[in-house]
Design a protein that fits this description.
Elements lengths: L7 H4 L6 H7 L20 H17 L8 E19 L2 E19 L20 E6 L5 H33 L16 E2 L11 H12 L10 E17 L4 E18 L5 E10 L8 H20 L6 E7 L2 H11 L14 H6 L17 E5 L5 E4 L2 E4 L16 E5 L2 E2 L19 E5 L3 E4 L3 E6 L5 H14 L4 E8 L2 H4 L6 H10 L8 E8 L4 E4 L2 E3 L10 E4 L4 E7 L4 H7 L11 E7 L2 E10 L17
Parallel strand pairs: 4-6, 8-17, 16-23
Antiparallel strand pairs: 1-2, 1-5, 2-3, 5-6, 6-7, 8-24, 9-12, 9-16, 10-11, 12-13, 14-15, 17-18, 18-19, 20-24, 21-24, 22-23
């Protein structure tokens, strides 16, 4: 886990007042819609040369007697421009624009065969050979070089501590002589040309749309809290390392979330949300469409308010639209990474790491109906004659390795996993999927634009008939359709106290996916009934072998994937109601999915006494 190094004092008078000004993050007004963003004015060629020269100096001079020197030093500079706005009941509740630059150093000691990485020190998980600092917007090459010197020094000292602990642990456990190196070699990459992207939408434009859509909830009964939030950001990244890599990439995302909460008649907390992400505002629904979506969300939340709680259930489950994407996201995608389990993880942490498919390349892992491809080079997809943006695309991963299209599963057989520069059973080299840090200071191979395709796809009516036929064969009176999962990074609210949230965290099986938000019973005569409290039990990877039918038309679901567990996201809550603009830009493209048999339990968490007095009526 990266840590922010407190370096302002060390930089001293050299930074002067500019450090506080940069921390405030004030930036010029964004260009009007349709214009392209200009090149960075904060991270210039002179700044990059200064950082590169400091890496070279550290490689030649950074030594502690009796300790191994660094064999690899990597620096990443990240410049972020972001506009955020939140509105509730037609009024703006929060807005800001930010512009800042982060410099991060990653130091590895030892050698490629055995280094400090991928090891967790008990009770010191943050000691991982990395350090990070907010670089002043007005930084000169001299300031940048001094900042690079300080973060490199801090990262090196951490790397030594981590290396000693890893070496001592291996000696104590007899684990020396493992057959895989700690890190793979990578040819240097030079790709320094700027990547043009559209300029940010003006904050005032986002604010007007948010106000209009949020005003809908003034007239919706049984709503406790509601908001409409926009984010729009540009993320520029530069990678420089001692192997000779100097590469640049830029990502551009805009997103909107409509969220509201209510309380069922038995006191259970209810939430519902709508989200869309794209490259720019033009990829998102129009103002009028968002107003209609807000009305529909209010209608569905009121229906949930009176809906019955589901009974415990074992039987066929059909996942439609966002529900299918959520099933892929929460129960399959976490296992597609090929990064080996970090040494030193606790048993509970190891369960949450994923990796259930490690060592299974060449074996059948899903239904033969399914094939999966992860393609970070894709920027869009055409479905039904319409083009949909995909936000998971990138040119370089977080280790500066070029993105690669990977065929993961072919007709149910695992062909490859998503790898980084940390060798594993899945592969000795990276296929460009280092996307998020994990415990031990390494990057986890992660899905980006994940395409799920199926053979013999059925039309919606045919798929429903197949669902009911399966329920009938199993002697059931109804089947279940799941259409949306909860996303606590979006929907978490302060409705529950910290004590209640901690109780929820400690008593909930962390192998279960998030609760569902929209689900229906489908009776054998075709009638549908909205139900609430639908919680899938822990869904092992082998459940994917029992997909018995797929839909014909795929759905696209863009989202920002958090590295935190969904229960941790509930604990943290949603800051100021804003759209999360941190996380891994991701997309899932999948048809509807019919599973032969899954276990469902009733989720009654979040129950509390209802308000003593009815809500005030809108004026």
């Amino acid at each position: 886990m990266n840590r922010i190094v407190s370096l302002v004092c060390a930089l001293g008078l050299m930074l002067g007042a500019s450090a506080s000004a940069s921390a405030a993050g004030d930036k010029p007004a964004a260009a009007k819609g349709g214009e392209m963003a200009g090149p960075s004015t904060a991270v210039t060629a002179e700044i990059l040369d200064a950082v590169a020269s400091e890496i070279e100096r550290a490689m030649g001079q950074m030594r502690i007697p009796g300790e191994p020197p660094p064999y690899l030093i990597s620096h990443k500079l990240t410049e972020i421009e972001v506009n955020d706005v939140v509105a509730s009941l037609g009024a703006t509740t929060w807005k800001r624009d930010r512009h800042f630059v982060l410099i991060e150093a990653r130091v590895q000691v030892g050698d490629y065969a055995l280094d400090n990485s991928n090891f967790v020190i008990a009770n010191a998980e943050g000691t991982d050979g990395t350090a990070q600092y907010v670089l002043p917007m007005e930084a000169t090459p001299r300031i940048a070089r001094r900042a690079a010197w300080l973060v490199t020094d801090a990262a090196y000292k951490e790397a030594l501590e981590q290396f000693r602990a890893k070496r001592d642990t291996r000696r104590a456990t007899g684990a020396f002589g493992q057959d895989r190196p700690s890190y793979s070699k990578q040819p240097p990459l030079v790709r320094e040309e700027s990547v043009p992207v559209p300029a940010l939408e003006p904050l005032s434009r986002l604010e007007e749309i948010a106000q209009a859509a949020s005003a809908v909830f003034r007239d919706v009964a049984n709503i406790r809290d509601s908001r409409v939030a926009f984010t729009s950001f540009i993320e520029r990244r530069w990678y420089i390392n001692s192997e000779g890599t100097s590469a640049h990439d830029t990502r551009r995302v805009s997103g909107v979330i409509i969220s509201a909460t209510s309380q069922a008649e038995d006191g259970q907390e209810l939430s519902h949300y709508f989200s869309r992400y794209g490259h720019t505002l033009t990829d998102l629904p129009s103002r009028d469409t968002l107003v209609r979506e807000a009305r529909e969300l209010g209608r569905e939340l009121n229906a949930l308010h009176a809906a019955p709680v589901v009974s415990n259930y074992t039987g066929p489950v059909l996942f439609e639209g966002a529900g299918a994407a959520g099933m892929v996201r929460h129960t399959l995608a976490p296992h597609l990474g090929g990064t080996p389990l970090p040494e030193g993880l606790s048993a509970d942490e190891a369960k949450q790491f994923g990796g259930a498919l490690a060592g299974r390349v060449g074996l059948r892992v899903t239904s033969p109906l399914l094939s999966l491809v992860d393609d970070p080079t894709a920027q869009e997809v055409k479905i039904g004659g319409k083009t949909r943006a995909l936000i998971g695309g990138y040119a370089l991963d977080d280790e500066g390795v070029p993105a690669q299209r990977v065929e993961v599963i072919d007709d149910g057989t695992l062909e490859a996993l998503l790898t980084t520069r940390t060798p594993s059973k899945a592969g000795e080299t990276s296929n460009g999927h280092a996307r998020r840090t994990t415990a031990g200071g390494v990057f986890h191979g992660s899905a980006t634009n994940l395409f799920v395709t199926g053979k013999r796809g059925l039309a919606p009516a045919q798929l429903k008939r197949r669902l009911l036929a399966e329920a009938r064969d199993q002697g059931l009176d109804y089947a279940l359709v799941i259409r949306r999962f909860d996303d606590p990074a979006v929907s978490a609210t302060p409705e529950l106290t910290m004590r209640e949230l901690l109780h929820l965290y400690t008593t909930t099986d962390k192998q279960m996916p998030p609760a569902t938000m929209i689900a229906h019973r489908v009776y054998l005569d075709g009638r549908e009934e909205l139900v609430r409290g639908v919680q899938l039990r822990s869904t092992p990877i082998r459940a994917w072998r029992d997909v018995i039918a797929v839909g014909r038309a795929p759905s696209v679901f863009n989202f920002l994937a958090s590295a935190d567990h969904h229960l941790v996201q509930r604990l943290n809550g949603v800051v100021n109601g804003e759209v999360p603009s941190s996380g891994i830009e991701s997309a899932v493209i999948t048809p509807d999915l019919l599973f032969k048999e899954l276990d469902v339990v009733a989720n009654l968490s979040g129950q509390r006494e209802p308000a003593l007095v009815p809500p005030p009526k809108a004026q």
